């Protein structure tokens, strides 16, 4: 029989010095490190990288440092990373960064091969993802070190690779790509800007809410998601106003992990499906793109999923989900489509690209194009 464990990722909350020592103590020879050069400088990690490289070389191995991490990785980014690594056998990929860095690690793990020395082409990677040809392979183990509090990619089995030709979002999905170990280091999130803090925090809240009302929700998922939502409500604005408060940052990291665990069981729903063209076609940051329709979709879903009153009660003191989001974003971001340069004439294009399988059809209420158009006009 086949069983699907709730979570088979080891999750460890540590400070930065503990993280360094744990990584340097790994019994590995060949390592792929994903960390942008700017992050290495910002986090004072250059000497750590040098020591990690020396340890690999002393064991007759090699450290491959992927220094460039795109905000929205495409097949080209995966291909470029594979070219740097070659066909060498690797023990582990250590991925620092937001969801993009961890997604890139999953892309590398899915497509790296020590037997096939021919280089992949961009179209080959796209076709393989669409046809799921990569599934069931021998993947490289991943250690995830998120530097944002929101994506949850450190505990999920899927990754987003954006199509180079902007034809859509490509989803990699295999249980073998779930990180084996996730180090949660709140210190790393303290360097996020206010806008990034809001975007990733709202992403966590959105993931939690969508898992709460998903067609595949369960009582356990709802309990986990509820706590994640509570933590975001209580701490997100504090993280914006007190960015160096390590306790607040740690609570946002808790929310991110819990939200990740929740939606790893259910996937997301209509809000994320609508978000993809907002990000790909108009450059709206992912977390903001997902959260901008949250209240409108919530009003449609109300009464169509278990324990709905408990969820909406969390936002009563703010006058609803949208008012809460506006209060968090006040003075920093205006959460309306027009603020991102999206006009009413753009809505039909967004609607045509807003129906992603496994997301839109996971919503508790089935939506058609007219429903989505009305949602988008309500947040214009």
pLDDT < 50 runs, ≥5 residues: none
SSE string, helices as H and strands as E: EHEHHEHEHHEEEEHHHHHHHHHH
CATH topology title of the largest domain:
Dehydroquinate synthase-like, alpha domain
What proportion of the residues is helical, as a percent range? Answer: 40-55%
> Order of strands across the biggest sheet?
1-8-5-4-2-3
User: How many domains in all?
Assistant: 2
Number of strands: 8
Task: Describe the secondary-structure layout.
Elements: E1 10-13, H1 16-24, E2 31-34, H2 37-42, H3 46-58, E3 63-66, H4 75-85, E4 92-97, H5 99-111, H6 122-131, E5 141-146, E6 158-162, E7 169-173, E8 181-184, H7 194-213, H8 219-241, H9 246-266, H10 270-282, H11 286-291, H12 294-301, H13 308-313, H14 321-329, H15 347-352, H16 369-378
Parallel strand pairs: 1-8, 2-3, 2-4, 4-5, 5-8
Antiparallel strand pairs: 6-7
Helix pairs in contact: 4-5, 7-8, 7-9, 8-9, 8-14
Please tell me about this protein's structure.
The chain is of the alpha/beta class. It has 2 domains: 10-187, Rossmann fold, CATH 3.40.50; 192-378, Dehydroquinate synthase-like - alpha domain (Dehydroquinate synthase-like, alpha domain, Up-down Bundle). The protein has helices spanning 16-24, 37-42, 46-58, 75-85, 99-111, 122-131, 194-213, 219-241, 246-266, 270-282, 286-291, 294-301, 308-313, 321-329, 347-352, 369-378; strands at residues 10-13, 31-34, 63-66, 92-97, 141-146, 158-162, 169-173, 181-184. The strands form 2 sheets. A 6-stranded parallel β-sheet has the order 1-8-5-4-2-3. A two-stranded antiparallel sheet has the order 6-7. Helix 7 packs antiparallel against helix 8 (219-241), helix 7 (194-213) packs parallel to helix 9 and helix 8 packs antiparallel against helix 9. The termini are far apart. The relative contact order is 0.11.
């Amino acid at each position: 029989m086949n069983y699907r464990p709730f979570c088979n990722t080891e999750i460890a909350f540590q400070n930065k010095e503990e993280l360094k020592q744990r990584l340097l103590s790994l019994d590995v020879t060949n390592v792929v490190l994903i960390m942008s050069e700017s992050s290495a400088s910002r986090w004072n990690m250059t000497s750590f990288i040098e020591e990690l490289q020396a340890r690999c070389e002393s064991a007759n191995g090699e450290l491959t440092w992927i220094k460039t991490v795109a905000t929205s990785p495409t097949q080209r980014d995966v291909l470029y990373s594979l070219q740097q690594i070659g066909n060498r056998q690797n023990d582990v990929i250590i991925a620092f960064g937001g969801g993009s860095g961890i997604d890139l690690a999953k892309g590398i793990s899915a497509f790296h091969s020590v037997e096939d020395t021919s280089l992949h082409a961009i179209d080959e990677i796209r076709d393989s993802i669409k046809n799921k040809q990569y599934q069931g392979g021998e993947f490289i183990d991943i250690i995830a070190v998120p530097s944002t509090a929101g994506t949850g990619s450190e505990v999920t089995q899927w990754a987003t690779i954006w199509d180079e030709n902007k034809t859509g979002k490509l989803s990699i999905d295999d249980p073998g790509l779930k990180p084996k170990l996730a180090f949660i280091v709140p210190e790393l999130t303290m360097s996020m800007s206010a806008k990034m803090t809001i975007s990733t925090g709202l992403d966590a809240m959105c993931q939690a809410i969508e898992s709460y009302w998903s067609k595949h929700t369960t009582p356990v998922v709802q309990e986990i998601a509820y706590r994640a939502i509570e933590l975001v409500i209580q701490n997100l604005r504090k993280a914006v106003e007190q960015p160096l408060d390590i306790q607040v940052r740690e609570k946002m990291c808790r929310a991110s992990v819990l939200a990740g665990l929740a939606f790893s069981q259910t996937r997301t729903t209509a809000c994320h499906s609508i978000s993809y063209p907002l990000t790909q076609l108009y450059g709206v940051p992912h977390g903001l793109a997902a959260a901008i329709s949250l209240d409108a979709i919530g009003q449609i879903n109300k009464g169509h999923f278990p324990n709905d009153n408990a969820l909406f009660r969390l936002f009563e003191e703010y006058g609803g989900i949208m008012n809460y989001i506006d209060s968090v974003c006040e003075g920093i971001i205006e959460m309306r489509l027009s603020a991102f340069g999206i006009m009413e004439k753009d809505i039909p294009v967004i609607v045509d690209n807003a129906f992603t399988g496994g997301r839109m059809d996971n919503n508790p209420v089935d939506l058609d194009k007219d429903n989505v158009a009305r949602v988008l006009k309500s947040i214009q």
